[in-house]
């Protein structure tokens, strides 16, 4: 039986982790390598790095970061943000990424998912979907959540898996930042229609939220950013609580 | 020097990074002489069996790897590299493997679990070996096919539908289905164990 994954997410802006991370033992709170190493020590199962600026220039910086992190930290790395074509995917994989997350580009060019999956294998193509509820419907948003579309998120999840996505990273924009728990209904709905791993993102505030999303929506991983970065929760706290509830974690 | 066989497969560089981190002298190479003279040979691999065997053939490395094994040089196959050590695979049609461990590589049967197996699974030892530290520990897997082989060659295994061998061994030929270079401290420890086995030439356990 696979362990449920606890995944910290780091936003990277021009080579630095944005806003930094508030761990007492870090000498440089913005250094991606140092932060990644600390998360490895804490027992993170995987790390997600999102390039939030993702201009051409920054893309090269991102590859350098992946190169550096993967030389010091030995766990799966997923990189996303500004991935537009097969060359972007290749560059990040070559630098040491295990998986690459495609978001807006998957919407404008779904064939990119297929091309990436055919060339590198489904297992390294993650499709990230930002979801917001509107009039009772889950709708896909792109461009870092700034652009609404009329695409139904549940249908879109089915579609991207058909195209070759090996994993889905689903962010509930309604829940993101609320610390109010994950959007259980959303993940239940998606889990019913796809058979690839699902990572839930948005809403983590307390240890019970993780237990709830694993138990009730049976997602494969749960991602959080600020609660980990600012030490409100440690990965170890989360794992202990989740384990106590009978969920398998590493 | 440890030779990492370079045959244009997936991400071999992460394995190199892990060995560098551990201070194990290594070189990514497809040079026959270097591979034959190496202290140990690591066969990495991500991708499909058939294409990987074709790449090894193209570089005339199939017989070289058999010679390495016959010379009693330690070989460590990782992920697809482990699967290549077996007699054959069913992936995209029957393909012959290196035949260094008997058994065949087959699709993980559908028992309702997600395929590929992608994530951390918990190992248990099937027989005692220098890799005993893996017992109860989680390692990182990404694969859709598994080695169907004799129990005597299985060092450790995980449950994922059927029993999936996680470490296999036939004397100096060892395979790991998971990615030690992606399995945190546990994975690095296992690579160090392999290094120690090479150093003291301890391949007697089965």
Automatic annotation (TrEMBL), chain A:
Its EC number is 4.3.2.10. InterPro entries: Aldolase_TIM, His_biosynth, HisF, IGPS_HisA/HisF, RibuloseP-bd_barrel. The active site is at residues 11, 130. Pathway: Amino-acid biosynthesis; L-histidine biosynthesis; L-histidine from 5-phospho-alpha-D-ribose 1-diphosphate: step 5/9. It is found in: Cytoplasm. It catalyses: 5-[(5-phospho-1-deoxy-D-ribulos-1-ylimino)methylamino]-1-(5-phospho-beta-D-ribosyl)imidazole-4-carboxamide + L-glutamine = D-erythro-1-(imidazol-4-yl)glycerol 3-phosphate + 5-amino-1-(5-phospho-beta-D-ribosyl)imidazole-4-carboxamide + L-glutamate + H(+). Pfam families: His_biosynth. HAMAP family: HisF. Belongs to the HisA/HisF family. IGPS catalyzes the conversion of PRFAR and glutamine to IGP, AICAR and glutamate. The HisF subunit catalyzes the cyclization activity that produces IGP and AICAR from PRFAR using the ammonia provided by the HisH subunit. This is Imidazole glycerol phosphate synthase subunit HisF. The gene is hisF.
UniProtKB/TrEMBL annotation, chain B:
It is found in: Cytoplasm. The active site is at residues 79, 179, 181. Pathway: Amino-acid biosynthesis; L-histidine biosynthesis; L-histidine from 5-phospho-alpha-D-ribose 1-diphosphate: step 5/9. Residues 4-192 form the Glutamine amidotransferase domain. Its main location: cytoplasm. Its EC number is 4.3.2.10, 3.5.1.2. It comes from the Bacteria. Keywords: Amino-acid biosynthesis, Cytoplasm, Glutamine amidotransferase, Histidine biosynthesis, Hydrolase, Lyase. One of its GO terms (molecular function) is lyase activity. NCBIfam families: IMP_synth_hisH. Heterodimer of HisH and HisF. IGPS catalyzes the conversion of PRFAR and glutamine to IGP, AICAR and glutamate. The HisH subunit catalyzes the hydrolysis of glutamine to glutamate and ammonia as part of the synthesis of IGP and AICAR. The resulting ammonia molecule is channeled to the active site of HisF. This is Imidazole glycerol phosphate synthase subunit HisH. It comes from Companilactobacillus keshanensis. The gene is hisH.
């Amino acid at each position: 039986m696979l362990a449920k994954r606890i995944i910290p997410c780091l936003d990277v802006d021009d080579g630095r982790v944005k806003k930094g991370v508030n761990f007492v033992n870090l000498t440089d709170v913005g250094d991606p390598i140092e932060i990644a190493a600390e998360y490895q020590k804490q027992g993170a199962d995987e790390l997600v790095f999102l390039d939030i600026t993702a201009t051409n220039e920054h893309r090269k910086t991102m590859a350098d970061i992946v190169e550096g992190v993967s030389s010091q930290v030995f766990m799966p790395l997923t990189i996303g943000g500004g991935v537009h074509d097969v060359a972007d995917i290749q560059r990040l994989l070559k630098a040491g990424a295990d998986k690459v997350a495609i978001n807006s580009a998957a919407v404008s060019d779904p064939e990119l998912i297929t091309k990436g999956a055919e060339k590198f294998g489904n297992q390294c193509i993650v499709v990230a979907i930002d979801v917001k509820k509107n009039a009772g419907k889950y709708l896909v948003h792109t461009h870092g959540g700034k652009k609404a579309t009329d695409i139904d998120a549940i249908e879109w999840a089915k579609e991207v898996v058909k195209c070759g996505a090996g994993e889905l990273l689903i962010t509930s924009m309604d829940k993101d930042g609320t610390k109010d728990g994950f959007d259980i209904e959303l993940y239940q709905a998606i889990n019913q229609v796809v058979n690839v791993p699902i990572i839930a993102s948005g809403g983590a505030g307390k240890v019970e939220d993780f237990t709830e999303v694993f138990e009730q929506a049976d997602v494969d991983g749960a991602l959080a950013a600020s609660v980990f970065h600012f030490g409100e929760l440690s990965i170890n706290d989360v794992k202990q609580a989740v384990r106590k509830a009978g969920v398998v974690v590493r | 020097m440890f030779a990492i066989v370079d045959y244009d497969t997936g991400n071999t560089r992460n394995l190199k990074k892990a060995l560098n981190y551990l201070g194990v002298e290594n070189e990514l190479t497809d040079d026959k002489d270097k591979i034959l003279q190496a202290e140990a040979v690591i066969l990495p691999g991500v991708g499909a069996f058939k294409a990987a065997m074709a790449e090894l053939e193209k570089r005339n490395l199939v017989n070289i790897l058999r010679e390495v094994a016959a010379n009693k040089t330690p070989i460590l196959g990782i992920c697809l590299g482990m699967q290549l050590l077996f007699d054959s695979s069913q992936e995209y049609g029957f393909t012959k493997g290196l035949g260094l461990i008997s058994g065949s590589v087959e699709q993980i049967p559908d028992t309702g679990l997600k395929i590929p197996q992608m994530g951390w699974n918990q190992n248990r030892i099937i027989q005692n070996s220098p890799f005993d530290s893996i017992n109860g520990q989680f390692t990182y897997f990404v694969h859709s096919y598994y080695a169907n082989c004799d129990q005597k060659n299985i060092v450790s295994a995980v449950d994922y539908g059927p029993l999936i061998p996680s470490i296999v061994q036939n004397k100096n030929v060892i395979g790991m289905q998971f990615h030690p270079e992606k399995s945190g401290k546990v994975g690095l420890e296992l690579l160090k164990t392999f290094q120690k086995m090479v150093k003291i030439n301890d391949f007697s356990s089965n």
